[in-house]
Amino acid sequence: METARPASSIKVSPADRRLLRVDAPRRPVEDPLADRFFRHLVLNLRTGVLAITRDGRVAAINDIAYRVLGLTARSGDVGRPFAEVLHDCPEVARVLQQAFDTDDLPNRAEMRLRKTGRAMGYSLSPIVDDEGRKIGATLFFKDLTRVEQLEERERLRDRLAALGEMAAAIAHEVKNPLASIEVAAGILKRQLPTQPDQRDALETLDDIIKEAKMANAIVVEVLEFVRPIQLQVERVSLDEALKDSITLAEGKQARGAVSIDMDIAPDVPELLADPHQLRQLFSNLMANAFEALGGEGHVSIRAGVLADEEPAGSTEPPVPQVVVEVRDTGPGIAHDDLERIFSPFFTTKPQGTGLGLAIVRKVVDAHDGHIDAISAPGRGATFRVTLPVVPTERTLGR
Fold first, then answer.
1. How confident is the model at residue 20 (pLDDT cuts 50, 70, 90)?
2. I need a surface site. Which of 32, 213, 352, 359 has the fewest CB within 10 A?
3. Which CATH number is 145-228's, of 3.30.1890, 1.10.287, 3.40.50, 1.20.272?
């Protein structure tokens, strides 16, 4: 009976060895180039990406994610527990926490970040291996704050268009009687003899004329506010527009002894904008400053180019922008009032209509820009207007 040889004693010819090497399953070879490529692909996506492993550690996070979440990038974040990295964003941490608790993961959901106040759209996707096991999860998200602002502008524009039709009809009915009252009071005033016993009657007629003019001015402002803005864009020199605005402001409000200095950076380009609307915008701001200063004080006007900054999570390239600051040394604005100064019909002035700054904001919005107010009681006020050098196609198409 033949005894089997131990495996170690089996001889294999060189030819057979070559065949065995060819037929044996090959171990996959790691491709460092492919690894780098996919890592760069993730890190350069134009949406926020935050990937975690099954044990809850950060596997990848890109720059957009840091910007949208308002976090500071640290070199050791990858590998740390996501709860630690997202300590200031607990609402995001809660979303990631459910990645391994349910198969019904959120898709195209939205949330608002408490840390930054930004609106964020997001989707949460599982990461599975070749055997179908969950080994991690990825959160894709985008800053929707700009989208929200544009949607709110569109809603406001629709409301104002409807209000404008109604206001135009009412204003037509109101303006004619006001004009008749003013004319009739003027005729009576001229017919009354300038005798001492007629002084009371003359003063009453003066009051009637004054109030009629004021009411007419309010009607004009209301019409200006509710009327949709149709931009007539052309190349505009910001320097010339600001100088014209100073002259217009002096016609609206007495300047007195208020001094003005203007500094326009040499690299500020011409804007593609509506020159009439720009003059109205800045003349309203300067007239407000003159009124707040009461004939004494200083107004500073600064303009420069804003460094290109791509909005967090944006899919569009950054737009060159110009920033104009109008600063006064007046009494300042109370904190509670600061939040409402751009609201229609809000005013702290006895004779104000509350439409001047509302019109300013409307003009800024029409140019696809934004405006901020910075102030504190006793520290003056600064209005910061940011305008694109070239408005968007959507704006030009209105």
1. very low
2. 32
3. 1.10.287
